[in-house]
Amino acid sequence: PVNSRYFQARNRHLELLAEKVQKQSGATEEPATIVVGDLNLTPWSPWYGKFLADSRLRDCISGDQMASLTPTWYRWPLFPFGLVLDHGFCGGGLRCSNRKVLQDIGSDHRPVLLEFVRGEDFSLQEVENLQKK
User: How far apart are CA 31 and CA 121, in angstroms?
Assistant: First the structure.
């Protein structure tokens, strides 16, 4: 966010989103939930961690250090570094089996391809097999 007003609005939006996710999860059977988008924060932000804890969702970059370092946003062509601002989260029996940052399509954000599968515990081999499909 470019100023404190937007910073506060973004943080409040994340709090409300986490509350909404938790209300839906309060049902007898937890619904499959996917949240994706430009959250305007990096995985290292304390607000990112707070959203994960409050929503009880899984992020799509857990355990994949390269995914957490692959920038999705480049604002200025001459700016040598990008930021990871576009994210995916899931819950309710879903797992993110694949996350890939794609090539530039003319936006200041690069597209992120996410694949989700049902099931709590997949072995590394099962995930690799799903990715080959």
Answer: 17
